[in-house]
Amino acid sequence: IQVVQNFEATRRRCCLLQQDAQRAREQLSRVEAERAELEGKLKHARNQVEVEMKKRYRAEAQLVKQERKIQLVFESLMQEPWGSRVLSREQCSVLSDLAGQHLRVTLAAGRRSAEDESYQSLLSHSDISYDHTEDDMVRN
Prior knowledge:
The structure is a single chain. The chain is mainly α. The chain has one domain (1-112). It has helices at 2-79, 83-86, 89-123, 133-139. α1 (2-79) packs antiparallel against α3 (89-123). The longest helix is centred in the first third of the chain and has 78 residues, at 2-79. Keywords: Coiled coil. GO terms for molecular function: GTPase activator activity.
């Protein structure tokens, strides 16, 4: 009778352990599905950031071109002897301010590109990677 009771107790523990194992497998599959979904979202977000960065660089390049055109017009008007007679003092002042802004924007763009590089390194694909070695250590 004692042996049969021990076998029954062992059988119950086995059943509980099997149920626990089944719950753990179900939880693992849910977590793996969630991880896959999050990886997809991360990939999408990285692509969006890349697209937006390209748009920003194109817009900044266009801005630099436009500023250079303004600078050339300003220089051309100021070098012409008739330029100061045709333009009022206020117009000359505005053009002079625009030329000064060009220098400030150029300096600010230099700072922005350094900031962009630091952001780029934070967002780079190689920096955010999943390391499977930790999983191997946990399993052993």
